[in-house]
Every structure is written in C-alpha cells, then in structure tokens.
Amino acid sequence: AFSCEGRVVAYASFGSQFPFIALVDESVRNAAEAAGMELFFVDNAFDAQKALTNATLIATRGDIEAVLEFNYYQQTNLVIAEIFRDASIPVIAIDIPVPGATYYGADNYAAGKLAGAGLVGAAKEKWGGTVDLLMVEKQSGAGQELLHDRDLDRALLGCGAAHLVGATAAPRSCSSRAVGAARDRQSHQPRTRPRPPTGSSGR
CB count, 10 Å around CB of 135? Predict the structure, then answer.
C-alpha cells in the first residue's frame, strides 16, 4: 500500500500575514505531520517576485518530491510552472491555477456565475428589476478575467442596469477601488434610463 511516510513535500504559502492563510498554513503543517511527511515551508508573502524566488529555491534543493503552490499572481504562475517542469517536480496548485498542475480549489468561474445570478434575482425582487448601476468586482489572479463581454451584456439585461462598472483589484484594496471606479463612472456619465430586455416595449 502507498504511504506518505518519509516523503519530502514543499509548500509555498499565499501569504502568512493574512489570518485566513495562517490557518491554511497550520492545517497543511498538521496534515504533513500526521502523514509522517517532511514539509519544506516557504512564504510567498503575497509578492510575485518572492514567489519566483521560492520556486527556484524549491527546485534546486534536489530532494522535493511534490509542491503545493499557493500564489495569487496568475501570470507569475506561468514561470513557476516552467521552473518546476524543468526540475521534474509535480505541482498541486491551491486556489489559483498553475499550468500543467493538479488544481485544488473552488471553481471560481462557476461561483461567479452563481453569484451574478443571485445578484440579478435580488435586483428583481428588491427593485422590480430596474437598477441604475451594476458593479462587477474582479480579481485577475483567480481567473475571473475569463468573463466575456456577452456575459456582461446578459447581466445588464437581466437586471435592467443602465451602466456597468468593472473593477479589477488585489484582495487588500478591491472594495475601495471598485467603489472608486463606480463613482468615476457615474461622474462622467449622465443619468439614463435602463436598457429594456430584448422584446420589451421599453415603456
């Protein structure tokens, strides 16, 4: 039977400075200890360059058998994937995809669609389906940039919004930047009536 006893695994944390991530880090350490594995821990510290440095450090050790990679910056993960591929080290990507790696995390695209459907339903229930502004907050690191214009158009029609604002930001500032984008959009756009759904008389 397969056993993890004595295996050497590296774990690159998202950033231990975040309370939730600190809990994830502790969970990984506990799981490794319970399985009898040796865990080599490095902290990406929510920093793209640090993540690359850590990947190189892991790849050059010579004794790492697998990597748990938890890095927010998806573009950096393209390089990280190459580093580990060249070192013949298999990768498990946590929450943010790494090309060629086994993915462990939520289906962010599907979750975003569900959240959008819920937003449209709430707008219909609370405001009768007529709203002035629809604000969509995105984080490129988790793959939400895959949202197409046609999906945004459907969202506009679904809740009768006259305007749509998209804001892409990092976790620490996403809310404030999204609100800022919405205010900027409103200040440069005169108030107009919501677009009626296809087939509506628009009365």
Answer: 16
